């Protein structure tokens, strides 16, 4: 396989990522958009958890971003506020592929955040108000009591909480990986200069 033939073909990493995700949606039994998101705490200690990637933006010119949503007061939200850099891996066992991303992070608090929040199930929207994410909880019953309280207060059309919204990861590095026989995997790393989202991507094959 020469550079970017077959499943690696293309000149836009965001379009390629969209294609791989679409293929995974047909084969993965649960949450094909799940990513293992890594941040760092104030001591520089890495922290990682699974979240759901909600959008792969592509502008068709090699520019785009990866977007997820969360509580800004959660551990990851506070860590990203202090150190706005992140990495994630998206792995699909059924396809034997993965995508790794590293980049800088900014908040998504505009119309897209409003639109996504409004698209969620009512109980999920109320849950965003009720959960003090990442902080100690006395019991599950206490959580459910708070859900009921917020549901009664907010009604059938709760607004988006001011502490809840999106994060956009603007990558400086994207790696596409596919399993190979005898662990001779195929890996292509796309890189561009930090701080210059308009920079041209450079693609390099890596040893397995």
User: Average pLDDT across residues?
Assistant: 95
Q: Main beta sheet: strand number and arrangement?
A: 6 strands, antiparallel, barrel
Please work out how many helical segments DSSP would assign: 5
One letter per element, helices H and strands E, the order comes to HEEEHEEHHHEEE
Organism: Paracoccus jeotgali
Domain Pyridoxamine 5'-phosphate oxidase N-terminal: 26-148
InterPro entries: Pyridox_Oxase, Pyridox_Oxase_CS, Pyridox_Oxase_N, Pyridoxamine_oxidase_dimer_C, Split_barrel_FMN-bd
Domain Pyridoxine 5'-phosphate oxidase dimerisation C-terminal: 164-208
Explain how this protein is built.
- The chain is α+β, with helices and mostly antiparallel strands and 208 residues long.
- The protein has a single domain, classed as Roll (Pnp Oxidase, Chain A).
- 26% of the residues lie in helices and 36% in strands.
- Strands 1-2-3-6-5-4 form a six-stranded antiparallel beta barrel.
- A hairpin with a 7-residue loop joins strand 6 (164-178) and strand 7 (186-191).
- Helix 4 (122-130) crosses helix 5 (140-154).
- The protein is elongated.
- The relative contact order is 0.17.
- The mean pLDDT is 95.
């Amino acid at each position: 396989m020469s550079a970017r033939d077959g499943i690696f073909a293309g000149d836009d990493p965001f379009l390629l990522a969209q294609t791989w995700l679409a293929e995974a949606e047909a084969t993965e039994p649960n949450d094909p958009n799940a990513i293992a998101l890594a941040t760092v705490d104030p001591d520089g200690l890495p922290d990682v958890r699974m979240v759901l990637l909600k959008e792969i933006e592509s502008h068709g010119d090699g520019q785009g971003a990866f977007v997820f949503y969360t509580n800004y007061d959660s551990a990851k939200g506070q860590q990203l506020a202090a150190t706005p850099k992140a990495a994630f891996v998206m792995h699909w066992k059924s396809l034997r592929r993965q995508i790794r991303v590293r980049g800088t992070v900014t908040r998504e608090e505009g119309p897209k955040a409003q639109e996504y929040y409004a698209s969620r199930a009512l109980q999920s929207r109320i849950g965003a108000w009720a959960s003090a994410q990442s902080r100690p909880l006395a019991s599950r019953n206490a959580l459910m009591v708070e859900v009921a309280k917020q549901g009664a207060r907010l009604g059938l059309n709760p607004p988006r909480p001011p502490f809840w919204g999106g994060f956009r990861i603007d990558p400086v590095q994207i790696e596409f990986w596919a399993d190979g026989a005898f662990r001779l995997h195929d890996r292509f790393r796309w890189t561009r200069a930090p701080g210059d989202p308009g920079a041209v991507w450079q693609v390099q094959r890596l040893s397995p």
